[in-house]
Amino acid sequence: MRCFNGLMLVVAMTLLIPLSLNAGGFKDERAPFDKSSYKRTMWSHANPWFPPDKSRTYAGGGPDFSWQKYNSDDVRKWKEVALRCKPYGLNGLQIEATVDGGSGWVEVLKTALAGFKEAGNGFMAMPFLSIVCEDARLPELLVKRFDTLMPELKTHPNVMRIDGHPVVAVYVGMRHPVPTWREAIAKVEAKHGRMIWLIDMGEINVVNPGKSLGEWLPEYMPVFDGITQYNWGSGNDLQLQWNKEAAAFFAANCPGKIFETAVNNTHTVYFHYGGLAPNFTARFRELWETALKSKADSITLTNFNDTYENSRVFPSYEMDDVLLRISQHELARLNSKPFPASPSPELYLSNYTSVLLGQPLRFEVLGFPLAGKDKRVEIQLDLCSGAGAILHSFPKREMTLDGLRAETFEASSTDFADQRAVQPKLRWHLLRDGQNGDSGLLPQTNIVTSLRPHLLWWTRALKNMIRLSSGGAWSLNDKTPGQTAVYPSSGTGFILSDAQSNCNGSPGDSNTGGGWVRILRNGREIQSFGNWDLKFAWPIAMPNPGGSLDWYNLELENGNGCRYLSPPIWVMTNERPGKVRIPIWCAQDGAIRDFEVEAARVPFFQYDCDRNTGRLLYDASGYNHHGSLGGGHLAYTAYRHEHIGLVDPGNAAFPKHVVDNDGRGCLAFDGNSFAMIQGGTAFPYASTYEVSVKPDAIGKRQGILGAANNQINLYLLEDGRIEASRTGVVEGEGGRPPQGGPSTTAKIVSATALKSGKWARLTVVYDLRKLALYVDGKFQGDAPLSPVRDAEWINVMVLGGTCGFPYNPKDYFTGKIRNARFYGRNLAPHEFLKN
User: Fold this and answer.
1) pTM of the full predicted structure?
2) What angle separates helix 213-220 from helix 178-192, to the nearest 10 degrees?
3) Quick one: which of 172, 188, 626, 772 is 20 to 30 A from 201 by CA?
4) For the chain, how big is the Rg over CA atoms in Å?
């Protein structure tokens, strides 16, 4: 039985007295408030464990590195955030604080508030409470969390308050029933006073599948003051439906409560590729249109700087400031205010960081309003080699920049199959006065085979580009952009650069040039130093690429956030020379055709298991695509297929490294242990999966190898035979059902049976036409199977079992495993590994 003391009970009962009853029977238990100060505001969520100053060499920095070098002082860092973001119209951040134990990241919220206060521009914050606990503990834990949030919520000048009451957002609050919330809110307010509570509706389809928003709102709105949204998985159609239902409900029942809608930029989750496919800024712009139609009180932008969920509202290296600039433009429309038009074309160009061979190369040119009467600008997009040669020019197009405008371009990647990458270059011509300009070579789109290393895209603002006024030549071990250097046996590279820029440094500096030089490998910083320009000679320690293909760039950045990125120089060993044939599913006509590509462009991952590497499943291929023994995951897949930074694998059972009686190392699985490889691992198209196994006993069905989307499943059957299968798809983009009809499955059972205590080599090959199984190199049979696009989603793999969605192991194996290799091509039998 729960009870209050006398004073608490009186206060609580006062707050919960029904205050209104409309004709439809809606009973509002909350006191009214004046929401006018909150209307027309714009917010973004911020996960405190992903601050904006992650290093480009550190795992958590992922790809979304923020502008420039931040002040090492945490308060001043958040001050800079406020100074950079407020001019775009962002009012503040909803900063996550957990409720179910520990410090809950409250110290980050308080530090951010201190920085916002120093900024002096009114940038605000509110807590975004993340709650995962038993219902019975919610009131107690919520009170404790507010004990730590005070007194800032009541007194800090940068906390968002309405009528003097702090605004509090609650993430996925419908995981707890209304009676629990009624009690919890009463207890908090009895101790700390009135709050304005906004409950997140962004994951209602996850928490309450099949239940509409119109059904959900009448339950929770009597005890809450409004809704907010954190939408990482909703498409535009669902958002449109939610907004329509919410607007109708609030208008009919509680117009004084807050209706906050979302504009979602979270596309995909790194460690299993779930989510929605990136489409440059198109989806973001569509959702802004949906938000404007909703007549909502306020808007949130999901998400500020969370690399874990591929969110990048905050200005980043890859996407510049385009999302905030779009938001600034749309907010001006919402408030019927003029947008600050530019006297010369303000253009942005977007291109994917990588495109699978066979799928379209796509580009987007975005233009913001142009000042003056004649707003026409002519643009031309070129695709160039790393050496600067034009490979293809799209026809010229005219844009009328009387608002936010976009043009998209598309080419077949198969027309560039011999190119490792293409670099876009945008030229423009202002029709009214003949002004001309160009972007120079913009960041490359790698044309990859077998698997997209990441689902990312660049957007670069031409206004933020550093241009070189002289020189520009640079070399790595005497090779220049577009050329290939052979990895030196010493592991030392020598960079010679002689380039002078034409822009100013930090504000107040009279020197010309940059400020920071970065040396990038595969798009990620490996070294940086202060220098006014790209004029230097420097040795670097080069990681061995193994069987992979590396690329290096130089980057120059000044204190104003402008930068220059050089074309790449490639580095490879001679481990995989020459060319190979690989079947490609061509998007333009659906045909499957064979292409010759460099062998080094085909990814593979190899887990020899021959050494004791602790909880690390070591990848010896050169891609550094390591796995984890037991639970947990390596969450950051960064700039190729490699995982950067370890996450504690936890207490899950894991295989032990042992030395077999043949004197060689291997992993011993005990029927309850497993190894996991996250990120992009299971190949969606042409592929080969190999593994050596030594079962302890025959007699039950055991999983040996499996992928979360069933691109591969390998079982040891009760009679010792091997079953290999591949299913068309289990989960599509955004967790949707399979697209293009029912999924199909190819299944093969071997004629050869394994014996306990004996090593056997298992190989499964898929060539886009059929699935084939081999035991010790001997063909066991095949089955027809066509490819499906949704196999590109959800690529996690489990060794020593099979894999549930998205990365839960099952069907454990008992025995020993070594020499697992996953190859992004259909290998011929003579190319298989041997025991």
Assistant:
1) 0.91
2) 40
3) 188
4) 28
